[in-house]
């Protein structure tokens, strides 16, 4: 997939995330301009409003990371091992940050952390 196609896919995701955030913020009665703020400003505002546990916040940070990676030429490389992320994984989720092996390791480690916390 070429970078203009990736950027287009990420742009569509951004639109959907911003719509969802508008609804969430209205529901929480917060006046954060999710339509025009930059992604980094939106992340800061949501953090300050203690919305970091919201799934849309996670998607927003993943989108910001993917766009930054695209800008510096690292999009599609695993955040852990720096190998290429499988094309099928990126096609399924353009925000994917890990190859299949590292994603499995991360999921396993996260389950271990959850067990230790309870």
What this model shows, in words?
By secondary structure, the protein is mostly helical. The protein has one domain: DksA, coiled-coil domain (Four Helix Bundle (Hemerythrin (Met), subunit A), Up-down Bundle), CATH 1.20.120.910. It contains five helices and no strands. The mean pLDDT is 92.
CATH architecture: Up-down Bundle
- Mean pLDDT comes to 92
Major sheet characteristics:
none
Please, what is the CATH homologous superfamily? DksA, coiled-coil domain
The H-and-E topology, N to C, reads as HHHHH
Could you tell me the strand content as a percent range? under 5%
- Number of continuous helical runs: 5
By CATH, the topology is Four Helix Bundle (Hemerythrin (Met), subunit A)
* Rg over C-alpha atoms, rounded to the nearest angstrom: 16 Å
The separation of the N and C termini measures 43 Å
Percent of residues in helices = 55-70%
CATH class: Mainly Alpha
Helix/strand/pairing class, anyone?
mainly alpha
Shape: globular
In total, the number of domains comes to 1
Oligomer: single chain
Q: Could you tell me the number of beta strands?
A: 0
* Poorly predicted parts: none
